[in-house]
Amino acid sequence: MFAHNVIVLLALALCSTTIVRGTETNGTNTFTEFAFGIISNKLQTLQKQLSEMEFAMKQTNEKQTTLLARLDQINIDHERMRKEIQQLASKKDLDLFMINSGINLRSVSFPSCKKNPSKRSGKYIMQPTEKDEPFLGYCEQTAYGGGWLVFQYRYDGSVDFYRNWTEYRNGFGSMDGEFWLGLEHLHRMTSAAKHELLVELKDFDGSYMYASYAEFAIGSEVDQYPLTKLGSYTGNANDSFNTLLLQGWI
């Protein structure tokens, strides 16, 4: 009886062991399948995110390509317009340019040569304030640090400077040669912002002199365009302006 009982117990023990082992095997498979499912879902999520990123990058690249193409076209148009402006020489040319091109000159104008970002010397459309009519001016953008508006240029005597009041008010000559910008333009420029004055003198022997004034402004036509501001002087030429002021000429 004792021996039989032992056999039964052993048999039960073996059965129990077998059952327990069977349960452990099924649990391992279930855990593996569960873990694989999590990893698979994670991979699918990452794949979706990657696809979305690729699509977004593609759209961004397409937008950048479009913007670059527009920028190239703007640069081409700007350069073409710059060359057309360089062909202008007088107010009459500017009026014709405005009519033929159909553009708003205010959109391509600058309040001063100093605020003109270009480093090229040449002709530009100037507009001191939004209330002022644009006009053609010559900007010296390299000498003395650039940002200088040339309002008088004489070098060979080809233009007669013995003119009447109206011509000195409005300007005369050609910016492709000798010219006078005009007192009204000069008044509006110096009234809109602080300006310096630089006078350059060169002779045919190559001698060079200059006179620089830290501030410069002239009044309106109502007061006959008087010199209203003249700052401190530096240079190697005679201080003619202050001499004339002391003598009561200006």
From TrEMBL:
Domain Fibrinogen C-terminal intervals: 104-250
Q: Which Pfam families match?
A: Fibrinogen_C (PF00147)
In terms of InterPro entries, this protein maps to:
Fibrinogen-like_C (IPR036056), Fibrinogen_a/b/g_C_1 (IPR014716), Fibrinogen_a/b/g_C_dom (IPR002181), Fibrinogen_C-term_domain (IPR050373)
In the UniProt record, the signal sequence range is 1-22
An example Gene Ontology CC term for this record: extracellular space
**Regions annotated as coiled coil:** 43-91
Give the UniProt keywords, A-Z.
Coiled coil, Signal
Name this protein carries in UniProt: Fibrinogen C-terminal domain-containing protein
